[in-house]
Amino acid sequence: MKEVTVQELKQMKDSQEDFQLIDVREEYEYDIANLGGELMPMGSILEFHDRISKDKTVVVHCRSGQRSRIAIMNLEEKYGFRNLFNLKGGILAYADEIDHSIQKY
Asked: What domains can you pick out in the chain, each with its CATH number?
């Protein structure tokens, strides 16, 4: 599985790269802390397949990287996505390494 580090994600954001950021956590988690991605909870991620770009890089994240890994595997298997990248360590790693103001839970 392809991954990006939190440092790579920050660079993508800072350089205003054209990519899609998807958050597969639950809405209550998104309300606690988020990276500004589109909320598509993992339990219903397959229902959102038509809102996920196939033409550009898509970074998928969750709290620690496990749910997003499963979501990516499901999307790749069912819909043939080849442009999905898991955020290594999830939002917890982003909070630890990039933005200490993000609330950890």
From this structure: 3-97 (3.40.250.10)
